[in-house]
């Protein structure tokens, strides 16, 4: 049975689920969420799909899961892939949680504020504050990746897929690969994986649609 | 062997680990982290304890774990407690991730900005923006708790312990229990659990020490 992922191209959190599905080799198809038309903020979406009002949502028959980190765990449980070795499970979860707390959450919001929110609603203080927090996160990740090909162990895991969620997007939010050599090399490693695709090639929806 | 938790009273993320240790009945003791003296930002802490520069850190013999959600998972694996029923594991993880992304991360930062950062460094725009995000998070949690005693299933799980991380603190950050009746009732349920303690009673360090 084909898994369905409710997602949209601009969402780095959706990308984490889509990339995990693609790299694990599962049969899946995207269902476009009309985020920019307000779908996730509507009562119907909250009542029927996700009380949290967020994408992605994975549907596998009777199973419906939300939160990208949960979907990643489900994919690993189902396929045996991307979870790392058994003794690495806490280390993989550690970086998924750190990413949700310190990296993707702030990167996604800052990218939204700088690119998708109407200019008159943007606050330079808020953007600057969040870029400062992002710089601290890049510093942690770049230091950890010194001498490593992937975040945990020797192969790609959900830790990598979580942390890279927003880092391939072209829209500016205060991240330049050239500033972070270890992160840059690691992102190239991910791009070199068989099956890797850019978010705008993997999911429907991109800023070009609304131009 | 007594587990050691590197923590400090003001840290809601530390509280999540400390409360899980206490409610699970494990033998543990706190080791105070001098956050306000800069310990977590120092090179020695990053090199020896946690590259992420964060508390809490759990030490169990040769095992050293960071990220409150990882420590919670470890405690559940070790004791069989607080993880929910096997079929609830994705739902527990879902709320732990949501909390890291949307609730504790923002509550902790906003409380820091409003109470612990020198006044001249505070930005009303940044505080207001984050309080708006927090209000959206309280709305999601309050709606989910309608008709429920705990977040997942009928008993306390790591989902509850994660989401309550910052909600018992007295310092203002834009949260008033009286505004959110389902959250208020749920927090009372947690306070009624055998072994429940307030963060300042469970861990060393509180604003009173620095007054």
UniProtKB/TrEMBL annotation, chains A, B:
Residue intervals of the GST N-terminal domain: 1-83
Keywords in alphabetical order: Isomerase
PROSITE patterns: GST_CTER, GST_NTER
Domain GST C-terminal: 85-211
Enzyme class: isomerase
MF terms (GO), sorted A to Z: maleylacetoacetate isomerase activity
EC number(s) from the headed UniProt entry: 5.2.1.2
Sections of the chain in a coiled coil: none
Family of the protein in this entry: Belongs to the GST superfamily.
Official protein name in the record: Maleylacetoacetate isomerase
Lineage: Bacteria, Pseudomonadati, Pseudomonadota, Alphaproteobacteria, Rhodobacterales
């Amino acid at each position: 049975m084909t898994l369905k992922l409710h997602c949209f191209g601009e969402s780095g959190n959706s990308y984490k689920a889509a990339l995990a599905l693609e790299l694990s080799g599962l049969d899946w198809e995207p269902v476009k969420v009309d985020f920019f038309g307000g779908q996730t903020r509507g009562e119907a979406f909250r009542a029927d799909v996700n009380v949290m009002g967020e994408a992605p949502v994975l549907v596998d028959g009777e199973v419906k899961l939300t939160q990208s980190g949960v979907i990643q765990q489900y994919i690993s449980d189902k396929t045996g892939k991307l979870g790392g070795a058994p003794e690495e499970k806490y280390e993989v979860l550690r970086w998924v949680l750190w990413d949700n707390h310190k990296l993707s959450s702030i990167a996604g919001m800052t990218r939204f504020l700088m690119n998708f929110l109407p200019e008159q609603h943007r606050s330079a203080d808020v953007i600057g504050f969040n870029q400062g927090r992002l710089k601290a996160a890049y510093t942690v990740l770049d230091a950890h990746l010194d001498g490593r090909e992937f975040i945990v162990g020797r192969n790609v895991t959900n830790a990598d897929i979580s942390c890279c969620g927003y880092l391939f997007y072209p829209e500016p939010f205060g991240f330049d690969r050239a500033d972070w050599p270890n992160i840059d090399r690691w992102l190239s490693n991910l791009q070199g994986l068989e099956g890797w695709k850019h978010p705008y090639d993997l999911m429907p929806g991109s800023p070009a649609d609304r131009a």
